[in-house]
Amino acid sequence: MPDLSRITLVPNRPGWHAAKLVEECGIVRPPVDQGRIMERLKLKLREFLYREYPGMTDWDDDNPEEVAFLKPSEQRIYVHKNTFHTRKRMSIFHECGHYYLPWHRGVDYLCDERRLSPLVKEQLERQAFEFATSVIMPRRMFVDDMLSLPLGLDAVNQLRRRYEASYLAAAIWYAKVHPGRCLFFCMGPAHERTMDASGKPRTSEHLKKTRLDGPDIQNSRPTQLGLPLRAVPGLVIIRKKDRPKTGRHLVVHYSFPSPRFGTFIRKGVEVWEGTRLYGLWLKAQSERGVVTSTIPMTDFGPSFWDHRYFVKVDCRSYADHEDNRTILGLLSLPDRQRTWKI
């Protein structure tokens, strides 16, 4: 009979393993030393350029297919030389996650990637990203520093400099671990294919597939759960009859609420011209830094008519990889309970 006293339960959580690794390396203050993590894992690092390989040109370096990759057999991580510092750190720790997480070991991503199902690959990549985020911004340190600053995007900017993280990664992590009531979102203009020359939404048949109330949404999760459409927690639906017939609009790309925010803004929610949030987007395009205002939650559509309260919002312009002018925003509600226990 095995000695049960020697059995240790290892949680299948990337954040737990990341915290364990940071503790083993003796890191107690940010920024996390990349060299100490690599030394602990006995991994080596090599920078490369695509132009060094036959058939590759400068164009491949300007548009790299892979920023970093892991070769477990060599115990080496290869990272593109021209990558920004913050993205390079995230990519390196991402590959460290593939090497360190117990259930990721034994997978050679260069050889086995095509044999992995898309669902499994997506899960592995999400777990590696969570691991990298938890290493760059250790939860205990990050929460302590976060609560020492006023809630807002200015705090995110200070934290990302302190932890040497990208602005997006710091903002997402800020919302996910904040003990207060806040929500981080990214919003930008609707895709040009959804607008005609006058700025009015098109109504062609191919757009019906992307509607939030299309058949792919109505006939999936709510039907399987056996619940009314409006009863599904966190599902935001804007019906066609509630949409304005004309006018320009913005689209929410993604959002990350804190555990206590109380609601969720689904990808694809439309914000129409004439709302306070639309005006704030216009203002953020012409001003530098953070723009602060107060907006009603109904700016996110009729689905929030049951939430007739105003929220504080910080916005700043942000150019994404497609050079579309988007804004990053942080919604927050007054909250006296800001204690945090892990």
Task: Describe this protein with a few key phrases.
disordered N terminus; 342 residues; Arc Repressor Mutant, subunit A; disordered C terminus; 2 domains; six-stranded antiparallel beta sheet; alpha+beta; 9 strands; three-stranded mixed beta sheet
Characterize the structure shown.
- By secondary structure, this protein is an alpha+beta fold.
- It folds into two domains: 10-136, Arc Repressor Mutant, subunit A (Orthogonal Bundle); 179-332, no CATH class.
- 33% of the residues lie in helices and 17% in strands.
- It contains twelve helices and nine strands.
- The chain has helices spanning 14-24, 34-41, 58-62, 85-100, 109-112, 118-136, 139-147, 153-163, 167-177, 215-218, 221-225, 276-286, and strands at residues 44-48, 68-71, 76-80, 182-189, 249-257, 270-272, 291-296, 310-319, 325-332.
- The strands form two sheets. The chain has a six-stranded antiparallel beta sheet, sandwiched between helices. A three-stranded mixed beta sheet has the order 1-3-2, covered by helices on one side.
- Helix 1 packs parallel to helix 6 and helix 4 (85-100) packs across helix 6 (118-136).
- The longest helix is centred in the middle third of the chain and has 19 residues, at 118-136.
- The chain is globular.
- It starts with 13 loop residues before the first helix and ends in a 10-residue tail after the last strand.
- The relative contact order is 0.10.
- Mean pLDDT is 77; it is low at 1-10, 192-246 and 337-342.
